[in-house]
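Ops channel
N.P.: pipeline sanity check, posting one input/output pair.
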């Protein structure tokens, strides 16, 4: 805030939204590759199939699925949030332009 007014640098804010969406896509891609490797490796049950391995399997599988679901969800939410930021910036710029036109003055282009 500057002097009690909120000022939005639309180019920086929009770029931040794009960067956030790209970060979400990167997280999603890592989940697909590395998370897929984790799933494949654990599917082979490297801890064994004896009683101890079965006990480990019973505890591990739920945690693995929870972490992998959360990892995928984080990527998806970051991508969505970035897109929402871009839409919000665009809407703010359009609203500012429309308001300026109604008041018969130029929009704030700091």
């Amino acid at each position: 805030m500057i002097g009690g007014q909120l000022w939005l640098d639309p180019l920086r804010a929009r770029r931040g939204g794009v960067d956030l969406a790209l970060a979400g896509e990167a997280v999603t891609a890592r989940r697909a590759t590395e998370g897929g490797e984790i799933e494949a490796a654990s599917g082979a049950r490297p801890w064994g199939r004896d009683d101890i391995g079965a006990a480990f399997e019973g505890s591990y599988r739920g945690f693995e699925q929870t972490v992998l679901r959360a990892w995928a969800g984080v990527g998806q939410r970051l991508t969505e949030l970035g897109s929402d930021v871009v839409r919000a910036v665009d809407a703010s710029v359009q609203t500012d332009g429309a308001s300026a036109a109604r008041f018969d003055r130029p929009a704030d282009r700091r």
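N.P.: looks fine end to end. The helical segments are 10-43, 51-102.
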